[in-house]
Amino acid sequence: MRTTTLGRSGVGVTALGLGTAPLGNLYATVGDDVAAATVVRAWDRGIRFFDTAPHYGLGLAERRLGAALRLLPRGPVVSTKVGRLLVPGPAAGDDLGAGFAVRADHHRVWDLTGDGIRRSLRDSLDRTGLDRVEIALLHDPDDLEEQAVATALPALLAMRDEGVVGAVGVGMNQSAMPARFVRRFDLDVVLVAGRFTLLDHGALTDLFPAAGERGTSVVVGGVFGSGLLAHDDPPDGATYGYAPAPPALLVRARRIAAVCREHGTTLPAAALHFSLDHPVVASALIGMRSPAEVDRNVALLDRRVPADLWDDLRERGLLDRPAAGFRS
Predict the structure, then answer these.
(1) Is there a catalytic annotation at residue 56?
(2) Whether domain 173-328 has CATH 3.40.50.1970
(3) How far apart are CA 267 and CA 30, in angstroms?
(4) Which CATH architecture has domain 15-138?
(5) Which of 27, 56, 240, 242 is flagged as catalytic?
(6) What does the pLDDT look like over 239-267, one tens digit per residue?
(7) Do the Cβ atoms of 136 and 174 come closer than 8 Å?
(8) What SS3 class is residue 163?
(9) Cα(286)–Cα(187) distance, rounded to whole angstroms?
(10) pTM for this structure?
């Protein structure tokens, strides 16, 4: 599997990365054995990049990833996130309000101070049982931009300079704020979810130009739009952004799927290759909750997508000109 170095960091990631939010019981429970088998299958299929976060299942994803990595012959590149500390507290029902089917025996506390960023990483190392992670990302500081600029990102850069981590950046569900961070700081990578897909090309207008100019790599998440683009023929009730897909987007996705069939490929294969093919993109991070999902996504990576598909989609009004044009 193709490996790309993140910025100037020397840290390499494979074209596919395993996102562990599902292993933190995102919206549904996953057994410990299945979680471990998913990580091992990803390794066996050539995936060497694994992303996690304290937020995912109140630390469950980190604990499960760490346990599974001990089954592997050597360690892959691991990315975790900082900015939210997990503070123990009396169990108060479940964590489904945050999307995870786990007991709410901890609560999340924002701490973007330098000490908080360092503590967050230490806590993640304790949960995973690892001595080191290669990548640390500031996680979703949407409402805390001033603190991110004043303390959190400088702390991450200092940790990289000290050799505590190999690469640093941010992970967000928007592209505008990360673009501002890239222009201001020497970041290695931005993980951006849902802003560069067949249905949303927002990152092309702000983040990607900034990343290209600054030599920052991008990891794309949400390439299937949380479900809508994951089907050969999107069904009624398909989800987009973790909610029922708006009718107009469902129609658009079905039209794109029909064009894909005309070109001898599938909507999921096109969705994955579209998000991977931009020059600033190093990897596509996909949440997977079973060995079967790993096999499916690796097969999509191996599937050929004809180059003329993009121009055909553009001519039919299903893909913006800039989104098709960077390939020519």
Answers:
(1) yes
(2) no
(3) 27
(4) Alpha-Beta Barrel (3.20)
(5) 56
(6) 998 889 999 999 999 999 999 999 999 99
(7) no
(8) coil
(9) 22
(10) 0.95
